[in-house]
Write a structure and sequence with these properties.
seven-stranded mixed beta sheet; nine-stranded antiparallel beta sheet; 8 helices; globular; about 650 residues; transmembrane; alpha+beta
């Protein structure tokens, strides 16, 4: 029988069943894969929505921006799917007593972190889906306190951490005071540095300085980072949870401060959104109808508020726990004018240090007795000398008040501030203890460039009272940026004795160089005068001056010259043998002026000019050659003539032969 080839019916049926089963399985798998793909896409969208909200919440620029982070919700529709997004915010503050975080309100100024949970809900293919993302937000990393570090009993005061070396300031600019004779711990306040803000923040002023407490090894124990602000503000409607003034606490070496507790009260904000001013404008309102020390920024002007509209505000700030907090207002208790050169002598500085302790003690005694007033004014330094020191020491001061006609002199103004303390802290001040001064909060500040200067007897004297400018170089250009208290004697007079007068408002505006911001502020100005005589003839020292002209290259690839700008003088310095010099760099001109004082017995005067920028291209030219540094040697008779030195870029063509006027 012949063999048959092909498929039988049974084989065909089996093949059909296998193909059908496989196709069905593949279709089911494809459907599942499509669902997974769609779910994956929607889940990815949800993840991105949650991440974008967290990124948005992280974009705060200031403390007030951090405080404004609160919970909320919104909805987004993408690819025909509706996503409901919500976020919850839980605020935490560090409780130093229990060494643990505690929940608080989002606007609490003591909030150290906020826990944010963002949840996105959506429906896909009839099924409810959800995704959550969690994060912690903090305005800074509290590395020396809370759970992130250990500050011992100093948690919450912005203290602790490694020791920092401190270089004590030089007299007469900075004067330190011994707080504790047994340990040698001292306190000093650095030179105030004004920052006159420009652009959209024009009119706002920030004056910065530090109050440093250090040991005999120059280890900085406490560094108080202080600011005084003049701000343009606008009042806001209703009330808000804002800060009371910072409160004093007793430490081992001194008084320090903790952040003021929040309370619901009226508030304002920076008119021009200046981040430096927001904390000031928001918080500097008193608690209504309260006489408590902790509720009022100024005990002599309780109930301070702004009910409506735009206004100027002035605040004292201190960095506490990493943030600038609003402090009780400055309280000026003494202001003195010093004649030129008096505080350059270490013995005279020691006398002034005694006077500071006298003033602080006298004011604390009045606080203890409850008799301190807004118009308190102790004996001037000169009057105190006359009553408590020898005739020789008093005469040494008076000799510095003798000026000579046609000569110019730099006077100084120094202020003493004492903070008001609650009775509980006043009770801890025991004058029988050698370290009583460490129990008091006070500052001694060089206010020469912040005080307003005037003279009586304008026929005999004239004084510079330049507009305040931003000081960039505190070390080399402090008194050269602008001039205040710079007196020129015009003609001889013995009687009546004309006076050199410095004035400050007693509170915050006095340390900004701005006018009083209220009638109360203006009615409590402090003026200190110093009578002088103007003699004929010449002094024991010779004062002379001149100018530094400046040329630089017109462009990077050019050897042509053009006049310099003020910035080209930023690193220019001048020194003289056996004397001192002041270099005045006026704004946006190619000439700086200088004035030097040397003993009349100095037969040869060496002026040393230098430009100290890294890789400097400037040299100085004169009749005797060129260089950087450049020394100009003069005889006494040469000092009667105007002196000119050229500071020039060495890329200028023929710079070696150019001098002033060429």
């Amino acid at each position: 029988m012949k063999r048959q080839y092909g498929f039988g019916l049974i084989e065909v049926m089996l093949a059909f069943v296998i193909v059908a089963a496989t196709a069905g399985t593949l279709l089911q798998l494809n459907k599942t894969y499509l669902e997974y793909s769609r779910d994956g896409r929607s889940r990815e969208v949800a993840i991105r929505l949650a991440e974008s909200k967290l990124d948005e919440l992280r974009r705060f620029q200031t403390r007030s921006g951090f405080d404004a982070i609160v919970g909320g919700s919104d909805s987004i529709s993408l690819d025909s799917i509706d996503y409901a997004r919500s976020w919850t915010v839980t605020a935490y503050a560090w409780n130093s007593a229990s060494s643990a975080w505690k929940t608080t309100s989002s606007s609490d100024n003591n909030t150290g972190k906020k826990q944010v949970v963002v949840t996105v809900n959506w429906t896909d293919a009839g099924s409810s889906r959800s995704f959550s993302l969690e994060s912690l937000l903090s305005p800074n990393l509290p590395a020396s306190g809370g759970p992130f570090g250990s500050s011992g009993n100093k948690i919450g005061l912005g203290l602790g951490g490694p020791k920092v070396s401190h270089v004590p300031g030089s007299i007469p600019d900075i004067i330190s005071i011994e707080l504790d004779p047994a340990t040698g711990v001292r306190q000093e306040t650095t030179k105030p540095a004004p920052d006159i803000q420009t652009g959209k923040y024009a009119g706002d002023v920030v004056v910065s300085f530090e109050n440093v407490i250090f040991d005999p090894s120059s280890n900085s124990l406490i560094n108080g980072d202080s600011r005084t602000l003049h701000c343009s503000c606008e009042s806001k409607n209703g009330t808000q949870l804002t800060a009371r003034p910072a409160a004093p606490v007793v430490l081992t070496q001194s008084i320090y401060w903790r952040a003021g507790n929040p309370v619901s009260k009226l508030w304002g904000d920076s008119k021009n959104n200046n981040p430096d001013c927001q904390t000031c404008c928001v918080n500097h309102y008193d608690v209504p109808s309260s006489n408590l020390l902790e509720d009022n920024y100024n005990q002599f002007n309780k109930g301070h508020v702004h009910s409506s509209g735009n206004y100027y505000e002035s605040c004292r700030m201190l960095r506490i726990d990493g943030y600038y907090r609003v402090m009780p207002d400055w309280n000026l208790v003494a202001l003195n004018v010093f004649p030129p050169g008096y505080l350059s002598n270490a013995g005279n500085v020691a006398l002034y240090q005694e006077y500071i302790k006298y003033v602080v003690k006298d004011y604390v005694e009045e606080m203890k007795a409850g008799t301190h007033t807004a118009t308190y004014q102790p004996d001037s330094f000169r009057a105190w000398l006359g009553s408590n020191k020898t005739a020789v020491e008093t005469a040494a001061f008076d000799s510095k008040k003798q000026l000579y006609a046609s000569y110019s002199y730099q006077f100084a103004a120094r202020a003493i501030y004492v903070d008001l303390l609650p009775q509980t802290l006043l009770d801890k001040v025991d004058f029988s203890e050698d370290n009583w001064l460490s129990r008091v909060s006070f500052n001694e500040v060089n206010v020469t460039l912040l005080a307003s200067w005037s003279v009586t007897g304008a026929d005999y004297l004239v004084v510079r009272n330049d507009p305040i400018k931003t000081i960039i170089d505190l070390e080399n250009d402090y008194f050269g940026t602008y001039l205040r208290g710079y007196v020129k004697a015009l003609k001889t007079t013995l009687t009546p004795a004309p006076e050199v007068v410095a004035s400050l408002t007693r509170y915050n505006t006095g340390l900004t160089g701005k006018p009083a911001i209220s009638s109360f502020d203006g009615s409590n100005a402090y003026s200190a005068g110093l009578g002088v005589t103007v003699l004929p003839g010449s002094p024991a020292t010779t004062t002379f001056g001149g100018e530094v002209q400046c040329l630089t290259v017109a462009s990077q690839n050019s050897s042509a010259s053009k006049p310099c700008s003020k910035n080209d003088f930023n690193k220019t310095q001048l020194a003289v043998n056996n004397g001192n010099c002041t270099l005045n760099k006026e704004a946006d001109v190619a000439t700086a002026t200088f004035q030097c004082t040397v003993p009349v017995t100095e037969t040869s005067v060496n002026l040393m000019f230098s430009e100290t920028s890294n890789n400097s291209n400037f040299v100085f030219n004169g009749d005797s050659g060129s260089g950087n540094p450049f020394q100009l040697t003069l005889d006494q008779e040469d000092l009667d003539e105007s002196i000119c030195v050229l500071q020039i870029h060495n890329g200028v063509e023929n710079y070696q032969v150019l001098n002033c006027g060429n």
